[in-house]
Amino acid sequence: MNQPNPAQEQAGSPLESRYRRLLWAYPSGYQAERGDEIVGTYLDTVEPGRRWPSPHDALDLLGAGMRERLRAYGALGLAAAFPLAATAALSTLAAVAAFFLLQVEFEDPRFARLDPVGPFQTLGAVIWLGWLLVGLTAAVLPGSWTRTAAACGLLLTITVPPVAALTGQPGPPLFVLIPAAALGLATLALPSHPGRAARSLPPLTAGSVAAASVAFSAAENGGNMFTSYGSTPELLAMAGGLMFALVLLVGLGRALRADDAGLWAALLLATPAGLFGANQLSQGIWGSQGGGPSSAAYATTTGTILLVGAALLAAALAGQAARHQTVRRQVLDKACPTCGHRSTATTPT
Question: Could you confirm whether the keyword Coiled coil appears in this record (predicted)?
């Protein structure tokens, strides 16, 4: 007697329905053609009694669906750009974390007129220590371990401000936390099997910035240029610009080899780079109050940067999709109406 397979046993079950809901990530035509096969494959692998897709299966389905959509747009370079952007984001976060930890958090809290949090100026030290740990994890435990650590780093970045507010402890300002959270979100796409360069880049940048910070402090000879977060907006804007410029430069180099993933990565990181300079941009447009922009001015500038970044990405996708459709139509117009093969003959001049 034939035993029913797991997919047959789960047919019509809540688990099957939940897998089918995840198929929204795929284009509608692909769902209709391959949906049953995809769901059946996943149901064949689940253990008895499971009622929800595992996080791994859910992320796998959503990622595959988005890649299929990008394939339909002719924008597979964007799918390849996410790991590149994630590596650049983590490297930048590791560098920023090393700088803030050494140049700000270990400084005398009296410079910032704050009550100390142990040996640190603010609870932000927890965030920076967390991102330095993520950078170290990227070098020794790449893949799922690093992505899990990055998710924890992002969670720390998001939860420290409300914890600081509830406990009455000082925390980093929003002009520091918002770009850090944007970069942290990008790190969730870290590659599963990074190369040696991608693994070594985050700890290398953190180490380089740490060495430069120590040398700078020694050169100051007791001076205090960076005494609090309030003394760093200009440097943050420079860091965002440098990150974008380096990624764009790499992208242009790859584009010469017919690889547009680097240019897509630069486009993905344009918004976090802009957020690094939001404080300075707000002061330039709206003026300053008490040494910085007003909350309303900063919120307006930040919202504008987010909208412009999203619009640029949408426009680039739309342009790539239109170009892809034009090329497809040209290929189909040249196809033989009988056999469907594209003619390779050229018209004599």
Answer: no
Helix (H, G, I), strand (E, B) or coil at 289: strand
d(C-alpha 225, C-alpha 39), whole Å: 59
Q: How many CB atoms lie within 10 A of CB 296?
A: 10
- Other C-beta atoms closer than 10 Å to the C-beta of 239 total 20
Ranges of each domain in the chain = 6-73, 76-327
**Each residue of 154-180: pLDDT tens digit?**
999 999 999 988 988 888 999 999 999
In this structure, the number of other CB atoms found within 10 A of the CB of residue 32 comes to 11
- The residue type found at 294 is S
Residues 148, 154: Cα–Cα separation, whole Å: 10
Instruction: List Cα–Cα distances, 342 to 74, 316, 326, 336, in angstroms.
Output: 19, 29, 16, 6
Q: How far apart are the first and last CA of the chain?
A: 71
Closest C-alpha among 180, 86, 87 to residue 126: 180
Q: Could you tell me the pLDDT band of residue 346, with boundaries at 50, 70 and 90? A: very low
**φ/ψ (deg, to 5) at 221:** 55, 55
Residues paired with residue 292 on neighbouring β-strands, in sequence order: 289
Residue 117's nearest CA partner among 94, 101, 97, 98 is: 101
CA 54 and chain centroid, separation = 23
Q: Look at the block and give the residue holding tokens 């970069």.
A: 183
H or E segment to which residue 140 belongs: helix 124-140
Show the tokens assigned to 123: 């609870």
Q: What is the pTM of this model?
A: 0.81
